[in-house]
Amino acid sequence: MGRKRGPTKREQLTPPPSIATIIFRCPNRKFRSSVAINNRYPPREPRDYTRVNQAIRASMVRVIDSDGSQIGVRPVSEALGIARQRGLDLVEIAASANPPVCKILAYSKYKYDQEKKEREARKKQKAGLLKELRFRPNIGVHDLDVKVRQIEEFIDAHDKVRITVVFRGREMQHRDLGFKLLMSLQEKLAAKAVVEQAPMPDRNRLVMTLIPKPH
Questions:
Q1: Which SS3 state, helix, strand or coil, does residue 6 take?
Q2: By Cβ atoms counted within 10 A, which residue in 25, 127, 159, 169 is the most buried?
Q3: Average pLDDT, the chain
Q4: Order of strands across the sheet with 193-202?
Q5: What is the pLDDT of residue 65?
Q6: Looking at the domain 53-110, which fold is it?
Q7: In this predicted model, which residue has the larger pLDDT, 143 or 2?
Q8: Who contacts 201 (Cβ-Cβ below 8 Å, separation ≥6)?
Q9: Do 207 and 199 contact (CB within 8 A), yes or no?
């Protein structure tokens, strides 16, 4: 029996299968770089990921019925069977609990309700902002109607609106036009808004603040 052949110098330098070798070629030199590819760990799930049916990993789960009553701790296979018999889904609603809590329900409706709650929460976060619109005392009828619609949109979104009438040059001699304009806006928006700050002179401006009308 002959001697067992050891690895050649080329084989010693060859990276293992889990290492990808990238070769960069330059005019005068050749660079070799080995980059490890780690496939041992699956990609992380998003924080808001909800496990449903076969995606639930726990072997035992605490099951809540669709009407909110407690079914108890059951093997996940049994809980899946109960949900399947009713034409519903098994949804993991408390993954960090021990054992995880799952509820039998229609996942499509559950997802819709969750998204609706998130939209309403975002809307509340944005609500209460201060918006500002500027007017000239001699604004035209069409432009005034456009501005009124903008104010109505802000009020509908529960925002405050600061209305500023800006005077230039000789317009300062006709501040009464600015007051008349603000009074006209109050009347046009009376169904949706109330005055928080009455018209107040401020150098070359008149300022009034409107807020949504309390229901």
A1: coil
A2: 159
A3: 81
A4: 130-135, 160-166, 205-212, 193-202
A5: 93
A6: Ubiquitin-like (UB roll) (3.10.20)
A7: 143
A8: 175
A9: yes
0.85 surpassed by pTM: no
CB 187 within 8 A of CB 201: no
CA neighbours closer than 13 Å in the CB half-sphere of residue 55: 11
Q: Percent of the chain having pLDDT more than 70?
A: 74
Instruction: Confirm if 156 and 189 have CB atoms less than 8 A apart.
Output: no
All CATH 3.30.110.10 domain ranges in the chain, comma separated: 130-212
The set of residues, in sequence order, having a beta carbon less than 8 Å from that of 214 and lying 6+ positions away, is 194
**The domain made up of 130-212 is a member of CATH 3.30.110.10:** yes
Domain with CATH 3.10.20.80 in the chain: 53-110
Q: Summarize the confidence of residues 129-152 as an average pLDDT.
A: 92
Burial class (CB in 10 A: 0-12, 13-18, 19+), 210: buried
- Closest of 82, 85, 88, 93 to residue 105, by C-alpha: 88
